[in-house]
Amino acid sequence: MACRAGFAKSARAFRYASQRVARIPASGCYKGEEVVRFLFVCTLALASFAVTPVSAKVLTPEQAKQWEFKPESFTCPLTGKRFKQVVTHPHFPLESYPDGSHPGDEWIDTQIPECPQDRVPILPDYAASMEGEDAGSGRLVYHTYTAEELARIPGLIASEEWTALLSQTRHQRAYWLAKQLGRPSFDRFELLLHSPWSAENDEQKRTALEVLISDLPAIVDDLDAPPEYRVFARYYLVDALRQLARFDEALALLDLLDKQVVDAEPGEDPDWAYARGEYSLQQARAIKLKDSDRFAIEALDDRIAGRLCGDPASYPAMRGPNAARSCKAREERLAREEAERGAVRALLDDRTALDMQCDDAAPDARDAILDEACHQAQHEADWAKGERLVREQPEQVAAICEAAAEHDRNTVQVSACTSYDFTLGYAVAELLDADDAAFAALCDVGTRLGYGAISLGCKLSSERRDYRRAVDLWQDQASLRTTCRRDRHKWSGDDYEHRDHALWLACNAQEDGEKAPYWLDSYGEEGTSDPSPLHRAALPYARKAIDTELARRAAQPKPSDPEAE
């Protein structure tokens, strides 16, 4: 499980631009005592972040030892000399900041190995870090310079530009070198985005932010990504402009980006189209307050802002020059919003009177309180209507949801289709349960981790198959014991996505001395009763979805196909 940054209210909202490798000591999948230990470590990381100056650029040997981070060996590309460096830093991925960073990322320069003699950095290969056996482990893969690159590096590091960069962050130098060498746009994007986070002083921060503003648009346009990613990535420009006190430019860009209509890709997370709303609102508040602090109070998630305002002594490194007045503005805003919510609730308590007021006053003639109450009442009525449609007209619901694109659905349709989309996934799973060939063709790891009916169906069918096989394995305890010892590499460890889940279930239960695991009898009861009318209505569309996806994949050129070159 790679933990990713994103907009403050949605870890999924900004997946491509924030698809950084989670920098934690181990994988993100834990159980039992591992969960407790992981959360404890994360708590320490957050506490350490709060009291450690943000200018801490890289971990000191003492800090690395405290965290039990071991140095790794690297070879200097020009001299061939070996050196060791810690490239892991404490990282709390469950909270994110407006610039895309997480608590602990003031140490992110630790990730860049730097030769002691000539200070040549070894560049991360971010795409490779998300592939192969170590994908999701939190370990970065590093680029091996080509002969052509090695021939160019001496001239590059002898230039005046490089000399000027020696006083900047490691990520800033690494970005410049990656740019000169023409490294892939995704690598340049990551390095550029990270470059201000380890800034030790205002000059480093200003330089990194100015380069980010200058270079990010072209890099984003070059990313191999859907169009919506190019919109979302530009919100980082808004934050950079705000930090440089270029408030008019920041607000103008924010307004421009908010007007960009974006759609989630088919099969992807439909929440993307809406998740930027809270981030944008927070940035607008901070900009209007002319707050240029990196951790501007009103640009932060409300939980984080509450900690910074409620306990200032514990978070000195995060409270900038504008924190006090922004905290006061936040307090006034929260009080005002609570009063407004109370007034709205009072109107909602008498629906008959509210309905009359909503009917009598045109939308543009209502005050803000009445308008909000009318909207909430209408939303609740529309949502209830959608739920009635599911109960009373399931076939019509299926037809509506298949015809209406997710981003075009009204509230009634969203209500009904929330149930339908979920049911469709279960219908796909039912068909895949009975079709081994289709399951094998469709249900790879990537599909199971995705979104949409096929992904949900694959996930459910895979789980059912794992449980059935675990039940079969359980029947012969002696044979299971032998298999668990012989194939331990297949089911143990932290690689959740690729491990043998049936063996994991059975072997863990046996090693724990369980006599009757919870899944032995209870699993499989689901689906034994008559399917709901909505499930029956979804089955033809589930069949169509499977057939369509099979045909699409069959039409894709194989790696050995000359036309694929």
What brief labels describe this structure?
mainly alpha; disordered N terminus; disordered C terminus; 26 helices; single chain; 565 residues; globular; two-stranded antiparallel sheet
Short description:
This protein has 565 residues and is mainly alpha-helical. The protein has helices at residues 33-51, 61-66, 126-129, 147-157, 160-165, 170-181, 185-194, 202-222, 227-233, 235-243, 247-258, 272-288, 302-310, 323-348, 351-360, 368-392, 394-403, 411-433, 436-442, 445-448, 453-474, 477-486, 488-491, 501-511, 518-521, 533-555; strands spanning 72-75, 82-85. The protein has a two-stranded antiparallel sheet with strand order 1-2.
Topology of this protein?
Blueprint: H1 33-51, H2 61-66, E1 72-75, E2 82-85, H3 126-129, H4 147-157, H5 160-165, H6 170-181, H7 185-194, H8 202-222, H9 227-233, H10 235-243, H11 247-258, H12 272-288, H13 302-310, H14 323-348, H15 351-360, H16 368-392, H17 394-403, H18 411-433, H19 436-442, H20 445-448, H21 453-474, H22 477-486, H23 488-491, H24 501-511, H25 518-521, H26 533-555
Antiparallel strand pairs: 1-2
Structural write-up:
- The chain has 565 residues and is mainly α.
- The protein folds into three domains: 33-338, no CATH class; 342-410; 417-564, no CATH class.
- 57% of the residues lie in helices and 1% in strands.
- The protein has helices at residues 33-51, 61-66, 126-129, 147-157, 160-165, 170-181, 185-194, 202-222, 227-233, 235-243, 247-258, 272-288, 302-310, 323-348, 351-360, 368-392, 394-403, 411-433, 436-442, 445-448, 453-474, 477-486, 488-491, 501-511, 518-521, 533-555, and strands at residues 72-75, 82-85.
- Helix 6 (170-181) runs antiparallel to helix 7 (185-194), helix 14 (323-348) packs across helix 16 (368-392) and helix 17 packs across helix 18.
- The radius of gyration is 27 Å and the shape is globular.
- The two termini are 32 Å apart.
